[in-house]
């Protein structure tokens, strides 16, 4: 499932979840690796300093990746008991970075950048414009974006303990969420894309 398009891998390594359980039913099929890592992190990584930035064990992360990459259940029965929260956080990042396209697909890169540039002084307008822009994402990517942003917002709220505020989280996740189609970013462009991701969080 690593390096495989989301829309393909969820056909054999996906789980159906309601990504907004406290609101109206919004059911999507999500990559099992994302759901397993996120659920473990929500339960055990609260308040963990440097979450998503501190490295786990490369050996253990490779072991977990191999389990999620192997049938027949592609990690659905995996227990994280032998691993750390940093292992799980690293695996989640590795999966996202391995995708052929970022979570916000290349085709919509300029749309999200334009929305931010036009509405950055208008919070309510910016939220509405981003919500409208998400409709254009492929369904699998739309679900993944909502799910990942919700997870990052959960940890951003604990920034006084984790030291990972929205800016720090955006610097870690920008390459896999909103990457330039030609992978050529000047420092200014890179910073602008980070600002978009921070705003989305």
From TrEMBL:
Keywords for this protein: GTPase activation
Tell me where in this chain the Rho-GAP domain is found: 21-201
> A GO BP term, please?
regulation of fungal-type cell wall organization
Protein name per UniProt: RhoGAP-domain-containing protein
Query: Can you list the GO cellular component terms from the UniProt entry?
Result: cell cortex
SUPFAM superfamilies from the UniProt entry? GTPase activation domain, GAP
Q: Which InterPro entries match?
A: Rho_GTPase_activation_prot (IPR008936), RhoGAP (IPR051025), RhoGAP_dom (IPR000198)
Organism phylogeny: Eukaryota, Fungi, Fungi incertae sedis, Zoopagomycota, Entomophthoromycotina
Origin superkingdom: Eukaryota
**GO molecular function annotations of the record:** GTPase activator activity
């Amino acid at each position: 499932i690593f390096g495989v398009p989301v829309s393909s891998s969820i056909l054999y390594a996906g789980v159906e979840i309601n990504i907004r359980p406290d609101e109206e039913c919004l059911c999507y099929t999500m990559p099992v690796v994302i759901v397993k890592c996120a659920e473990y992190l929500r339960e055990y990584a609260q308040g963990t300093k440097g979450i998503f930035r501190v490295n786990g064990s490369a050996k253990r992360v490779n072991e977990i990746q191999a389990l999620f990459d192997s049938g027949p259940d592609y990690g659905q029965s995996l227990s994280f008991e032998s691993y750390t929260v940093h292992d799980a956080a690293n695996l989640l990042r590795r999966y996202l970075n391995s995708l052929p396209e970022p979570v916000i697909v290349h085709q919509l890169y300029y749309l999200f950048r334009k929305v931010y540039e036009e509405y950055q002084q208008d919070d309510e307008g910016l939220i509405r414009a981003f919500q409208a822009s998400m409709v254009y994402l492929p369904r699998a990517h739309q679900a993944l974006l909502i799910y990942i942003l919700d997870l990052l917002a959960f940890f951003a709220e604990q920034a006084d303990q984790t030291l990972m505020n929205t800016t720090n989280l955006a610097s870690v996740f920008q390459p896999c969420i909103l990457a330039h189609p030609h992978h050529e970013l000047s420092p200014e462009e890179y910073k602008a894309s980070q600002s978009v991701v921070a705003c989305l969080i």
